[in-house]
Design goal:
The chain has 161 residues and is mainly beta. The protein is built from one helix and twelve strands; from the N terminus they run ββββββββββββα. It is 11% helix and 47% strand.
Length: 161
């Protein structure tokens, strides 16, 4: 399943829809303005909060936490010993890790677990300017989590740039 994300709308305080490949509203991104740290909520079309993304305070390398039901689900960080600048590690609460690598700022990267592709993020398929697709490859994958990871690494890469 592919989801379409509009790039220009990633400002704090802005709300915007992520659409599925049929053009239906799949997720609402609710940017929380006037907060001490960067906070976004990924909501279902009915308004339920599925995932909350928060910038981690007092982190030496910069990190964001991914929460579900107000409990930590994952932490996203730039990989420490990577020769590639655009390489991130997602450490899940259960200790498993996802690997995110590619050209983050160009919106051409992949999210993998143990060498298996979970999602591919790309602008290549689209003609619409300032839009990229999150293609969730595995049907049993958590689409909301993978979209949240994509949003996190893009925000972090843009800050580092």
């Amino acid at each position: 399943m592919k989801y379409l994300v509009r790039d220009k709308l990633f400002a704090i305080g802005d709300d915007y829809w992520i659409e599925d490949e049929d053009g239906r509203h799949a997720f609402l991104v609710d940017g929380k303005a006037l907060r001490l740290r960067d906070t976004l909520e990924l909501k279902a079309p009915d308004g339920r909060v599925l995932i909350t993304l928060r910038e981690k305070l007092l982190s030496l390398r910069g990190a964001m936490t991914v929460e579900r039901d107000e409990r930590p689900l994952a932490t996203v960080r730039r990989k420490r010993l990577s020769l590639l600048r655009n390489h991130y590690r997602v450490t899940m609460a259960d200790g498993t890790e996802l690997d995110v690598s590619g050209r983050i700022l160009d919106r051409e990267f992949a999210i993998e677990y143990d060498g298996e592709l979970l999602a591919h993020i790309s602008r290549r398929w689209l003609r619409v300017r300032d839009t990229y697709a999150v293609d969730v490859v595995r049907e049993d994958a958590d689409a909301a989590l993978l979209i949240a990871v994509a949003v996190c690494v893009i925000r972090m890469a843009e800050r580092e740039d």
